[in-house]
Amino acid sequence: MNTYLPVKKSQAFLVENVPLFIKNSKNEFVLYKSENIKLDRDLYDDESLPDLFICQEDKEIAAAEIQEALNIELYHHIRSKGLYRVKAILNEIVKEALLNPCEGGLEYLPETIELLFDSYTGESHVLKNLADIANKNYSLAEHSTNVMIFTMNYGIFSGLSEERTKQLSLSALLHDIGKTQIPDKVSAANHQLSEEEFIQHKKHTALGYDLIRQSGKFDESIALGALEHHERLDGSGYPMGITKVSAEGQIIGIVDDFEYLSFREKSYRKAKKPFDAMSVIKNELMNDGKFSKDIFIDFCRSMG
Ligand SMILES: [Fe+2]
Ligand SMILES: [Fe+2]
Q1: 117, 169, 198, 211: most buried, per Cβ within 10 A?
Q2: Is the pTM of this model over 0.70?
Q3: How far apart are the CA of 74 and the centre of ligand 2, in A?
Q4: Angle of helix 83-99 relative to helix 124-132, nearest 10 degrees?
Q5: How far does residue 256's CA lie from ligand 2's centre (Å)?
Q6: Distance, CA 59 to ligand 2 centroid (Å)?
Q7: Distance 17 CA to ligand 2 centre (A)
Q8: Domains defined for the chain, CATH in brackets
Q9: Burial class (CB in 10 A: 0-12, 13-18, 19+), 211
């Protein structure tokens, strides 16, 4: 027997290559539109569109199609310079990708990075404005999007090659993907984690590495950002406590800390001003040697 999965109303318009179904009064799934037909946005508003479903076996095609369509929307909004919409679509792209990492969800992310890179090279202020459009409540998609934006800005500013900047940006986008594999009460906790919860939390690094490797789409360097972004040069980090940390781990580690301190508010602590967040990182660098001085200086300058 077929299993059916609900489709978000906003995304029903993006699905063309798979059939959509509705549930009738007897709870049976009935064909609503066949494949190769797209719902016409002009004919519906959110109220008039019924609850729609796809067949489980079509999930992969639908996820890839939604990602591709969102990239096209992203492109149009970048062109019309609507930063709020650009950020909203970016968040949606990332949310979708993190929801379906093994089922076509990651396939179009390099295209997303490409679009942003091509559009915003030399427009550091626009990239930073884009990151600033953020809600302080923790959202994995928004945090991941911002870490990617700041990493891209860092890469461009530091004169890294185009290929390297895109690679780092993608790694940054996926750095916390392992959080999708640990319970919400830990990954989205608004309280200070207990010892036991922290042990679970630390697993997101290796889980993320495995997920990215298993997707079969990206090379090792993309996965290293996920594995090593909490490692510190003094060996105090996790999951392995190593002192030789990859460039991916070091760069994303600094950007991640900055984003977390300055954008994410928790019940037990306020978000810091950017300067204060930088000071916290600087102190950890000076006192304990947790971070690379060169990377930190470049990062500060890229944000200046
Ligand atoms: Fe993390
Ligand atoms: Fe993070």
Answers
A1: 169
A2: yes
A3: 23
A4: 70
A5: 5
A6: 28
A7: 34
A8: 4-59 (no CATH), 81-303 (1.10.3210.10)
A9: buried
Q: How close is the Cα of 176 to the center of ligand 2, in Å?
A: 5
Q: Residue 142 CA: which ligand is closest?
A: 2
Output the CA 7–ligand 1 centroid distance in Å.
29
Pick from 8, 257, 288: which is nearest to 143 by CA? 257
Q: Note the Cα 220 to chain centre separation in Å.
A: 18
34 phi and psi angles, rounded to 5 deg: -85, 180
Q: Can you give the pLDDT of all 304 residues of the chain as single tens digits?
A: 789 998 888 788 889 999 999 999 999 999 999 999 888 877 777 677 889 999 999 988 888 888 888 899 899 888 887 889 999 999 999 988 888 776 667 888 999 999 999 999 888 889 999 999 988 777 899 999 999 999 999 999 999 999 999 999 999 999 999 999 999 899 888 899 999 999 999 999 999 999 999 888 898 999 999 999 999 999 999 999 999 999 999 999 999 999 999 998 888 889 999 999 999 999 999 999 999 999 999 999 999 8
Ligand 2 centroid vs 167 CA: distance in angstroms?
17
Which ligand places an atom closest to the C-alpha of 141?
Answer: 2
CA torsion 40-43-47-53 (nearest 10°) is -30
From the CA of 230, the nearest ligand is 1
